[in-house]
């Protein structure tokens, strides 16, 4: 039986790298991201299904859930950085923080809720992409880190409530991605890890299916 994965934020970075790794192993993939052109290109490369849209939109989440009546893996990878340049919390614009909470916390929880029936049927897995900013006090990263800390705790409780579904909240470390470049500059980001190497480690985690918990990669 072919395994099916739904990956958000799959048009570039870690999402695309993981999609490539899973496709090479024969997985059926449903990919989503906001940028339709990049997403269609990735899907064409991998023989995947592309459903462009914003996971913060409940209608889009419902459409994704309908596309995966049987699901082995949900990867909540899509997320936002928030305000840039990274502000101190004393100056953090609350309207931006509210949007970031929706993108980084409400959206992955909503998609998890929508796909849980399919995941339960297949004793599937959920991967929520976290960050070391969820646990470390890094200047300027308070808004983003707070959303990832919230996602960690949601994952922790989900693991306790859904014993038949493996749940991992994963800190991938710094990667050379557009998001990191937006935060620290392209030159510094270029020295960060390769998303493909992190994706390989994440694929090994998925195959090994350890107990639910927080994982740091690679």
Automatic annotation (TrEMBL):
E.C. number(s) listed in UniProt: 1.-.-.-
Enzyme class: oxidoreductase
Gene3D superfamilies: NAD(P)-binding Rossmann-like Domain (3.40.50.720)
UniProt-listed Pfam families: adh_short
PROSITE patterns according to UniProt: ADH_SHORT (PS00061)
Record carries keyword Zinc: no
GO molecular function per UniProt: oxidoreductase activity
Ranges that cross the membrane: none
Family per similarity comment: Belongs to the short-chain dehydrogenases/reductases (SDR) family.
Protein name: SDR family NAD(P)-dependent oxidoreductase
Organism: Nonomuraea mangrovi
Upper taxonomic lineage: Bacteria, Bacillati, Actinomycetota, Actinomycetes, Streptosporangiales
């Amino acid at each position: 039986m072919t395994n099916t994965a739904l990956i958000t934020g799959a048009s570039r970075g870690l999402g695309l790298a993981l999609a490539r790794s899973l496709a090479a192993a024969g997985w059926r993939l449903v990919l989503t991201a906001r940028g339709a052109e990049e997403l269609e290109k990735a899907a064409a490369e991998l023989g995947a299904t592309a459903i462009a849209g914003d996971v913060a939109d409940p209608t889009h989440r419902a459409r994704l859930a309908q596309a995966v009546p049987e699901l082995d893996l949900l990867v909540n990878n899509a997320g936002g950085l928030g305000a840039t340049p990274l502000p101190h919390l004393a100056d953090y614009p609350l309207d931006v923080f509210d949007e970031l909470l929706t993108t980084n916390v409400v959206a992955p929880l909503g998609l998890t809720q929508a796909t849980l029936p399919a995941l339960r049927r297949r004793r599937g897995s959920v991967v929520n992409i976290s960050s070391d900013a969820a646990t470390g006090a890094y200047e300027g990263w308070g808004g983003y880190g707070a959303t990832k800390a919230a996602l960690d705790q949601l994952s922790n409780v989900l693991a306790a409530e859904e014993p038949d579904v493996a749940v991992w909240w994963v800190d991938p470390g710094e990667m050379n991605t557009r998001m990191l470049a937006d935060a620290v500059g392209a030159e510094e980001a270029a020295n960060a890890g390769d998303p493909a190497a992190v994706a390989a480690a994440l694929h090994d985690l998925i195959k090994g299916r350890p107990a639910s918990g927080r994982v740091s990669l690679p």
